[in-house]
Amino acid sequence: MRIGDAAAAAGTTPRALRYYEERGLLPPPRRTAAGQREYGPDEVARVRVIRELLALGLTVEDLRAFADRIGLLVEDPRRRCGAPGSGGPGAGVVDRRIAALDAEIDRLSRLRAGLALLTRERPRSGGGRAEPAR
Questions:
Q1: What contacts 18, CB < 8 A, 6 or more positions away?
Q2: Which domain holds residue 47?
Q3: Number of structural domains, the chain?
């Protein structure tokens, strides 16, 4: 199938397919005599796995670290991706991403707490009673 049909089947755009190919996540597809890309069901399945991993918070750079093993997840979607010592396709990458997400959650929690303080009562300028924040 041509790039537009493959992209639609995988739930993405032709531009994304070209990008995944450029970044090494998707092997270069077969070409027609006219030079157009042709994709099969295996490539569509691989793009679906890529999109699922991206939706879980991994980045394209994370996926590049184990791009040569994404096919293992296509073959067996229940395979564990990065359990420590599992030898899974994303061993280590997932742990690093979880640590980065935890750090971001901590940072956002501190920001939220700081903003919440602004909405509580604060002293009136010039002394006197406290007034609600506006």
A1: 3
A2: 3-119
A3: 1
